[in-house]
Design a protein that fits this description.
Layout: H1 2-11, H2 13-18, H3 20-34, E1 36-39, H4 43-57, E2 62-67, H5 71-86, E3 90-96, H6 99-111, E4 118-120, E5 142-143, E6 148-151, H7 156-181, H8 189-207, H9 215-243, H10 247-266, H11 280-283, E7 285-286, E8 289-290, H12 291-309, H13 311-321, H14 323-328, H15 333-359, H16 370-380, H17 392-411, H18 416-442
Parallel strand pairs: 2-3, 2-4, 4-5
Antiparallel strand pairs: 1-6, 7-8
Helix pairs in contact: 3-17, 4-5, 7-12, 7-13, 7-15, 7-16, 7-17, 8-9, 8-10, 8-15, 9-10, 9-15, 12-13, 13-15, 16-17
């Protein structure tokens, strides 16, 4: 039985190529269990629920709606008021603020001679002690949405947040995966993120009118910035292929040059004068899903097709497996290496554009340590640092493993220093597993 399991783990393509997906599922289950707690609904659905509860208890009730002045509470308030008024209830007053505002509103309503049948509140505002100061009211008249038990980790808002924050790393990791499969490395991607951010911001500010720039200007500026980073990647590939300089040295030099150029162009300052049309890419939504997530998924589908169905993908794997054998077999090694470093640079530039759009400003300090996060995602996803092995979707899984670990540790209040220790250990374990797998393959 044990021998059968061992053979399965060693030969199953699913386990071999996407074994880390099981680790991801285990992590999701672990952090779901650790963050299981009582939840209190918010937003429009909660507001409608409270209104329905009040309408069941009272006929044409006189209601006070009390919430804080937060976006979710405003949605709660608007939905509750709409539902109540549609059913013939009277909304005596609406409070969007703090406990003193609620106290003042209750006093004004009572002085006008009105009586309060119910108070539409949420879990936070219902706990204010101000209601018990009025014998005619009391906390017993507060109606709140029904609570339920659910993990904080599995909240839709948290999952979308994790995916949205992972999107930039994952996009850059596509190019890094191709580079590492060819047995190379690219340490310059973090600095290229900063360079793209500064370039697009300066172009929009100085060449296209800043905050008044239109969609066409945004497209031109963004495309130009991505091309600048693609040229930097092509330069890396040229130095590596033409002069046989180790990729580590070439990309380390590019990392310093791109960072220095970013600070020089921006004078070391943030550049916030950006048009609202530029923010759609990083902060917009389609059907409730953030645009960076949709962009990430589209790019991964394209990259998967390239690596698994196209000649370029086969060339990339063959170069990583044995460069000299690939050259003797007719593979255009130089052109393929130039292509993968160019793609890696372009995707780093695209990541910088998305990050700038998300944060509404360009900054030469963007991308700091991104190269390490991206390489970690690629390695954890099963791509071998020795080259020749790896899957695009494995990298996506690796990026999410790191993101889930970081998010789960934040939700469970793990010390930031311990978080670094854990993430470092995860990376070392991933490299160790790759090394052991390769030794087993050689035997």
């Amino acid at each position: 039985m044990n021998n059968a399991i061992t053979r399965f783990l060693g030969t199953s393509p699913l386990v071999r190529d996407y074994g880390m997906s099981f680790v991801l599922l285990l992590l999701v289950g672990l952090f779901s269990a650790l963050t299981l707690k009582q939840q209190h609904p918010t937003g429009a659905d909660a507001g409608r629920q409270v209104a329905d509860l009040i309408l069941v208890r009272h006929t044409k009730p006189r209601v006070l709606v009390i919430t804080r002045n937060t976006p979710e509470d405003v949605e709660f308030s608007n939905a509750a008021i709409k539902r109540l008024e549609e059913k013939g209830a009277r909304v005596l007053a609406t409070v969007r603020g703090a406990a003193p505002d609620a106290k003042q509103s209750i006093e004004e309503v009572l002085k006008s001679g009105e009586s309060i049948d119910a108070i539409a509140a949420n879990d936070v505002t219902a706990k204010w002690t101000v209601y018990d100061r009025f014998p005619e009211v009391g906390a017993g008249k507060c109606v709140v949405p029904a609570s339920y038990t659910w993990p904080d980790f599995l909240k839709v808002s948290n999952l979308l947040g994790v995916a949205n924050q992972t999107a930039i790393y994952a996009i850059i990791a596509i190019g890094m995966t191709m580079v590492i499969i060819t047995a190379g490395i690219d340490l310059s991607v973090g600095s290229l993120v900063a360079l793209a951010s500064v370039c697009v911001s300066i172009l929009l500010r100085d060449c296209f009118g800043g905050i008044s720039a239109g969609v066409a200007a945004v497209i031109i500026a963004s495309t130009t910035s991505v091309l600048v980073c693609a040229l930097a990647g092509a330069f890396n590939g040229f130095m590596i292929t033409a002069f046989r300089i180790p990729p580590f040295i070439v990309t380390l030099g590019m990392m310093m040059m791109a960072s220095g150029l970013s600070f020089k162009l921006s004078m070391g300052q943030s550049i916030p004068e950006l048009p609202s049309s530029f923010f759609w890419l990083g902060r917009g939504h389609i059907f409730g899903i953030p645009n960076p997530i949709l962009l990430m998924l589209a790019l991964y589908m394209i990259a998967h097709i390239v690596m698994s169905r196209m000649v370029l993908g086969r060339y990339i794997y063959s170069i990583g497996g044995n460069e000299e054998a690939a050259r003797l077999s007719g593979v255009p090694v130089t052109r393929v290496q130039l292509a993968v470093y160019t793609i890696c640079g372009a995707l780093a530039g695209l990541g910088g554009i998305v990050l700038t759009s998300q944060l509404s400003a360009g900054d030469p300090k963007f991308g700091l340590m991104y190269e390490l996060e991206v390489i970690a995602a690629v390695v954890v996803g099963g791509t071998s640092l020795m080259g020749g092995q790896g899957k695009i979707f494995g990298t996506l899984i690796g990026a999410f493993i790191i993101a889930v670990i970081k998010n789960g540790m934040n939700l469970t209040d793990v010390d930031p220093f311990n978080q670094k220790i854990v993430l470092g250990a995860v990376l070392m374990i991933a490299v160790l597993l790759d090394t052991l797998r390769r030794k087993k393959g050689h035997r």
